[in-house]
Amino acid sequence: MINGVNFDYQLRKYLDNRAIQQDQHEITTLAKSHERQRIARDLHDLLGHTLTSISLKSELAERLLSINPEQARRQLQDIQTISRTALQQVRHAVSDYKTRNFSSELINARIVLESLDIELHCQGCDITLPAVIDTVLAMVLREAVTNILRHSRASRCGLTITIKDNNVLFIIRDNGKANGEPSLGNGFKGMRERCQELGGQMQLLFHQGCEISVTLPMGQADNGACL
Fold first, then answer.
1. pTM given for the model
2. Beta pairing partners, 217
């Protein structure tokens, strides 16, 4: 009887340990899967906009080469600058996933859009925001500008940031026309996921252009939410 009780105890202990190991394995697997998704999303956010800019400027330089060599040379210089900046960003991302800043992203957006004769108008963009919200809005702006460059044929883009009822409302709107039916690509899906992780939401409206609206609660950022 004693041997039977001891065997039953050892069996239960073995099964409990095995269950714990299985749970730990599942948690590790889920964590690795989430990390892979985060890296893929970050690489898309980081390189999609830059590579689109380089592609467009290269095509423009090729067209200008025979009719206006000086402007073609300036486009090539812009490509060199963008490439160097992209290389620095990739190095930072690989080493430390460097946090992007909305104000610097806004400067880059203005340079790229205005070089293609797309007006950029801003309202409330100098508001100081919690770091985690600032980062999300920077990435939304990057994705929106990439979408404008690729699809919209816009001539004007407007940005507004307002704070109401302890929520941050960010709206970016262009007057372009999409080439074909608009679709929600991986970039926008990633942005929506980031907003939802902070307890917010992102909406897209296609009517006489594209409007992206993001609502993020200030309280969620204060509680230490992370990307």
1. 0.56
2. 167
